Amino acid sequence: MVILNIVIIIFLITCALAIGKIKDLIGAVILFSAYSLVMSILWLILNTPDVAITEAAIGAGVTSILFFAVISKTKRYEK
Asked: Which is nearest to 27 in space by CA: 61, 68, 66?
């Protein structure tokens, strides 16, 4: 179980750093969604299912849809 926690935390740190470096905004939204989904798994491991459901619904679901809607109105790549 400890190894799983370490792998999840390393993945979360990697996603967070990649989101800051990537120039493609859709790629950043996809990475953010993956971050939120893995974070909800971490909340489940920590025995907080209410927080995990909220993270999955809001973080990965609603926020990603809003980001995609905004990106569709603007340019895809950052200058």
From this structure: 68
Q: What is the pTM of this model?
A: 0.86
The domain total for the chain is: 1
- In tens, the pLDDT along 20-67 reads 999 888 999 999 999 999 999 999 999 999 999 999 999 888 999 999
Please report whether residue 37 resides in a domain: yes
> Does any domain span residue 58?
yes
SS3 77: strand
Is 54 a member of any domain? yes
Taking residue 5's Cβ as centre, other Cβ atoms within 10 Å add up to 12
